Amino acid sequence: MSDLHRQRAQVLMQQGRHAQAEPEWRQALSGDPDDGGLHAQLAICLAAQERYVEAATEADTAIGLAPDQSYPHYARAVIAFDRNRLAEAAESAEAALRLDPEDADYHVLAGQVGARQGRWTEALAGAERALALDPEHVHANNLRATALVHLGRKDEAGATLAAALARDPDNADTHANAGFAALHRDDPAQALAHFSEALRLDANNEAARAGLVEALKARHVAYRWMLAYFLWMERLPSNVRWGLLVIPIVLQTTIAGVANANPGLAPLLWTLYGLIFCFAIMTWIAPSLFNLILRFDRLGRHALSPAQQAGANLLAVLLTLVAANAVVAAIGPAHIWAPTKLALLLALPASTVFTCDRGWPRWAMAAITAALAVVTLGWCFVGVVVNLKLVDYEATADQAFRVLPSLSSCFIAMLLSQFVAGALQGVRVKR
After folding, report:
1. Backbone phi, psi, residue 103, to 5°
2. Residue 47, domain member (yes or no)
3. Domain range for residue 413?
4. For site-directed labelling of 10, which of 114, 216, 257, 401 has its Cα 20 to 30 A away?
């Protein structure tokens, strides 16, 4: 009877019906409560339902019962990986490999840990070790292709995915990876086809849904250029990426100084300054801006995740505020132009709130954005009442300076918020 429950549970797990598989594993365990392998299987089943504390307890029980078996260590590695506890995942994966170095799944998991940490050479090594054991291993082929793309070896990645699809044309994960490889090749039409097929095969494939959104946005030439820049940045080491974030600020500061010292060159230099400024702004707000555009697209509005929809809505509110301030500024003196620019810059932190991981990183970025929004609204209010000549400018400005930070410090805070956002976007909350 225990074997029957085990077989039913395995079939249900393969179908992704983890809630239905759980009672079958428990029935199997009731007949053999000291079977470490069964406890490990139940642990993975619970982790698939995001019941991580129970899953970790079952994995520890499995290891306690069968410390010399590899699968309980693998189960604990899977759970730690799902919880973003990568050091624990790597340690448990190594323990499983020491006990059984001939299991391709264990090598894949070790490679996936490296991939999530951005160590693509390690990810590729794990995938290739798995493929040496099982050349048709689907997850190993997908991991290899993903690593090759991030290492800039796009042709090899394409060949790997083409071979995988030839063997198994109905694998949703492979289609999703083929879609991302097509995006890296600047072929959004092919990417869209692969992501659509992946979602047809598996409507709950989150990677394919996220890729579909990128492919839909890449239909616009401007976003395609930005996406090529983002994907290029993604392949760079983290320290180089941080350095590139500083370059536009240094260039703008230098150009402004030269323009002020050389009036004859000022028109050309200020034009260059504006282009660099617009490029910098677009690198920060382009994802949310084009998500907003997709809100008006028949397919796009259904592809956006709740977080992407919320980010697009927030940006729409801010752009409305900017437009309203610009209209008021246009009908009177220019005292409100600085607050209008500040309102535009508020789009920088606001556009990153929903790109941070759920939990404290998102709440931290939301708190920073809210604080900056309060100050921005204060300056916008001052600008409006002054421009409409409801109050005296000098007196109101003097009172505002006593309560609000200076405009220059606000501009600096907006820019600094992007470095904070970059750090928070790299954080994965441990579950």
Report:
1. -95, 120
2. yes
3. 228-425
4. 114
